[in-house]
Amino acid sequence: MIDSITTDQIDTESSKLITHAEYNSLYHRLKLTFKTNGKIYEYKGVTEDTWEQFKSSESKGKFFHAYIKNMYKFEKNL
User: Fold this and answer.
1) Which residues contact 27 (CB under 8 A, 6 or more apart)?
2) What is the pLDDT of residues 22-33, one digit of tens each?
3) pTM for the full model?
4) Residue 2 in domain
5) Would you state the pLDDT for residue 2?
């Protein structure tokens, strides 16, 4: 079980692409749930600064495509 102290999460209902986002600061992992297919992807090595910028971005989808999608390795969870 992941310690809630190291995990931050947000619901992204206003996003057309992402339903839920969760970040683990201990392991630098960003877990995103996508609206398009309901699948969960976990991105490795995401910095806390990137997470903070993602949270405050006006468009989560645009931020994802510009700064996360092709920048970090990921695992797809079904």
Assistant:
1) 6
2) 999 999 999 999
3) 0.86
4) no
5) 47
